[in-house]
Amino acid sequence: MSRRPSTASSPLVSSPSTAAESLGIACSEASGNLHVRFADRVVAIRAPCAVVLNEVAGTFGAMAVTECCGRLVGTVEARRAGRGFTVDADEGRKFDDPIAVARELYHAAARLLMFAYDDLVWVHAGAVAWGGGVHVLCGPSASGKSTIVGALLKRGWTYLSDEVAALDVAATHVYAFPLTPERRVHEGGPLRDAESVRSLPKVAIPVDPTFVAQGSLPLAAIHFLEYRPGITTWQHEPCAPGRAVLALLQNSLSLADDRRAEIAALAQLVSHVPAYELLYGDANAAAEYLHRSDPASSPRGSRTNGRDQGSGSATLPNRS
Amino acid sequence: MMATPPGRPRSASGVLCCEVLDELVVYCPEARQAVSLNPSARAIWELCDGSRTVDDICGKLNELTRAPLDLLRADVQAAIDRLESLGLLAVHRG
C-alpha cells in the first residue's frame, strides 16, 4: 500500500517524477537519520537517500521527531545495493523504487514499536475522538476508515490514527498513533466493489496539529465498517459480543503468538465497550450520523446484545 | 485417555474457549478457526463433552427450554455438523 503525501501538505517531500531520477539525482545526497516516537519509545530510521527519508517522515507525520526524545527500542536501516536498496538484514530482497523502500522502512519501524508495547492490542482501524471519548473505526483495506476519519476531522473531531489503533485493554484507553492520514480520491460515480476502491490513488488529509491527540484517551465505542458502493441507506446496529471479538481478531495487527491471551483481552474489552456494525454507501453521510448521534450512550460496564445475530466464524491468518 | 464412545461429540483436542458476556468464542489453533457461539449454540457446545449422544443433548435441552424435540434435533445436528466441519468438534462415528 502506498502512503504518498501530497507535496502541498507535506513540504518535507520532494517527489521526482520517476524512480530513475530519484536514484540518479536526489539519492546522491548524503544519508540521514529520522526518529519516530510512540508514547515514550523511539525507533531510529536511517537511509542513504533524502527522498526515502522524506517519504518515511511524511508517512509518520506527527510521530516523526528530529531527535531521539525517548527510549530507543531499535533502528531500521536502508542500504544501497547496486542501483537499488536493501532494508536491514533482508539482503535477499532488493528495492529499486525509493517509495517501496520507504514503505518497507515504515513497516519495519511500526513493527518495532508494536513489539515494544506488546501488552497493547493492535488493530487495523482508525481512531477519532469527540467529547473525550474515542471511536474506533475497524475494517479491512478499502472499507472507508480514512475517508470517514477525514470527514469527522472536518467536523472538529480529534485525530488519533487512520490506520492503527493501539488499545490498552486494562485501562480501556486508546493511544494515538498519528500517522499522516490519507484518503482515496474518486471523482466519478458509485464504485462497483471494494477492489475498485483499493485501486484509487491516495492523498494526504491536512490535520491541524492542535487536533492531534497526545497520549491516550478513553475508548467510547467500536464500529465495524462495511462499505457497499451504491447503496443509499445505511445501518448502524449493535454487534453481538462474540462477533465483535471475531472481527477484532480478523483486523488484528498484533505480532504475538499467544492467541489465547489476545482472545481473552478482546473478550474483556468487548464486555465493557459498546460495539456496532455500520453498513453504509456514503462516507460523508456515515460521518454525519456518527457526529450527530451518541452511540456510546450505554454506560460502560452494561452491554446489551441487541438482536440475536446468531453465530459467526473466522479463519485467522498464520503469524510466522 | 479413555476413547470417546461412537456418536458422542466432544471438543477437538487443543481447542480454547473464552466467555464474552453470555456468548462463547471457541478457537482451534491447529485449524486456525475461531467461531462465536450465541447463547443457544453455546448451550449445545457445553453439552458436547463426549458423554452424550445427539439424542441425549436434545433431551437435556428439551428439559431446559421445553422446545419441541424434532425442532431441537434439527438445530442440534446442524450445529454439531458445522462445528465438526470447522475442526472444533470431534465426533467418533464408530
Give helix and strand order of chain A, one letter per element, not per position: HEEHEEEEHEEHEEEEHEEEHHEHE
Q: State the shape of chain B.
A: globular
Gyration radius over CA of chain A = 20 Å
Biggest sheet strand order of chain B reads 2-3-4
Q: Mean of the pLDDT scores of chain B?
A: 90
Largest sheet of chain A: 6 strands, mixed
**Secondary structure: number of strands of chain A:** 17
Counting DSSP E segments of at least 2 residues, the number of strands of chain B comes to 5
Description:
The complex is a heterodimer of chains A (320) and B (94). Chain A has eight helices and 17 strands. By secondary structure, chain A is an alpha+beta fold. Chain A is globular. In chain A, helix 4 packs across helix 8 (283-292) and helix 6 (241-250) packs across helix 7. Chain A has helices at 19-24, 50-60, 98-116, 145-154, 194-198, 241-250, 259-272, 283-292; strands at residues 32-38, 41-47, 64-65, 71-81, 84-87, 90-95, 121-130, 133-138, 158-161, 164-168, 173-175, 182-184, 202-204, 216-227, 235-238, 275-280, 312-315. Chain B has 94 residues and is an alpha+beta fold. Helices cover 40% and strands 21% of the residues of chain B. The radius of gyration of chain B is 13 Å and the shape is globular. The A-B interface holds A 240-246, 249, 259-260, 263-264, 267, 270-271, 303, 305, 308-318 and B 16, 18-25, 27, 29, 32-39, 41, 86. Strand 17 of chain A pairs antiparallel with strand 4 of chain B.
Index terms:
heterodimer, A: 320 residues, alpha+beta, 6-stranded mixed sheet, 27% helix, B: 94 residues, Arc Repressor Mutant, subunit A, 3-stranded antiparallel sheet, two-stranded antiparallel ribbon, 5 strands, 40% helix, globular
